[in-house]
Amino acid sequence: MRVPLDGLPERVTVYEVGPRDGLQNEKSIVPVDVKAEFITRLADAGLTTIEATSFVHPKWVPQLADAEELLGVLPRSPLNRYPVLVPNERGLDRALANGVTEIAIFGSATETFAKRNLNRTIDESLAMFEPVVRRARAEGLWVRAYVSMVCGDPWEGDVPLAQVASVARRLMDLGCSALSLGDTIGVGTPGQVTALIGEVVGAGIPLDRIGVHFHDTYGQALANTLAALRAGVTVVDASAGGLGGCPYAESATGNLATEDLVWMLDGLGVQTGVDVRKLAETSLWMADRLGRPSPSRVVQALAPKE
Ligand code: HMG
Ligand code: MG
To answer: Would you tell me how many other CB atoms lie within 10 Å of the CB of residue 288?
Structure first.
């Protein structure tokens, strides 16, 4: 049954990160043809923006070392966007050589995670991103900026909102078109999310540029998403079947499951264009390939019963 709530957008863009954030954290390396089929099935379920892979150092993330091969076999359609993660100019060169038109850089709100994830301080990572964004924009690419550890950091604890907003501002000032606020370890709660969005908007970043990226470690991802939507956000990152994590962040588990998100938005009458049943079938298929059940409650509830 559809029952709307006041204060929500009419439509939400789901930014699917399963093939990248999900598969980067799998112990096994998923074969490239399975990745390509996964992405094709996600598109078929109505997802239009699908983060496909990363052009990072293959030793740092061996699960995505096949980025070139994957883009070579992935059927492209003008209806779909396939952004990829790019940390540096070497990554950008690889992305450009493979016909990528949308990239995402990824900064950190904390020094510890910047060091662990990028082998750089915050200042050094911004210096690394600067030529990436400049060259990407000159080539006509769309550039998104992630900020990680926006609700807390496993090494540093609480992260001041002003610190998050400052890094976000510096990333956007490089010339990025969109921002994604990442609760990498899933510790945030809805009041914190509301305050965070207020702080980021207060730093001069318009709401229509802001996306949210929740991991579900403490079961708060859906509640945090609702808080973000009520604060005016309309772009939500999610991962099919709740796959995910970050290999360089202790205690990061899966992202908000796309099925859980779409089930809630369908019930609220908020359009996404995504067919939740088709998507859940895809996540069941992927769970079979990975040899473990999907953590998504909606995927489990929609699974055919014996
Ligand atoms: P580094 O070791 O400092 O690299 O790593 P370097 O710049 O010193 O270069 C060393 C060698 O690596 C050089 O080769 C480079 O060419 C090569 P050599 O000259 O010695 O032969 N190299 C590369 N090769 C291929 N592709 C590249 C590349 N770059 C350098 N792109 C680096 C620095 C940034 C490369 C490394 O730290 C890295 O790859 N980090 C990626 C970590 C990662 O992918 N983490 C997960 C994604 S972030 C995330 O999940 C959070 C998010 O979901 C949001 C949230 O939840 O909060 C986005
Ligand atoms: Mg993430």
So the answer is: 11
Residue given tokens 């094709």 in the structure block: 40
Tell whether pTM > 0.90.
yes
User: What are the tens digits of pLDDT across the range 5-57?
Assistant: 999 999 999 999 999 999 998 888 899 999 999 999 999 999 999 999 999 99
Can you give the residue range of the structural domain that contains 31? Answer: 13-302
User: What does the block give as tokens for 258?
Assistant: 């796309």
Catalytic residues: 246
Q: 181 in a domain, yes or no?
A: yes
* Distances, alpha carbon 193 to alpha carbons 4, 83, 85, 125, 216, in Å: 22, 25, 24, 25, 14
**Residues 249 and 113 sit within 8 Å (Cβ to Cβ):** yes
C-beta 91 within 6 A of ligand 1: yes
168 within domain boundaries:
yes
Query: What is the total count of domains within the chain?
Result: 1
The tens digit of pLDDT for each residue in 122-145 reads 999 999 999 999 999 999 999 999
CATH number of the domain bearing residue 191: 3.20.20.70
Best of 56, 61, 215, 235 for a ligand 1 pocket test (most atoms within 8 Å of beta carbon): 56
Residue 23: what residue type?
L
The answer to whether residue 298 sits within a structural domain is: yes
- Residue 84 domain-assigned? yes
In terms of Cα–Cα distance, which of 129, 135, 121 is closest to 173?
Answer: 129
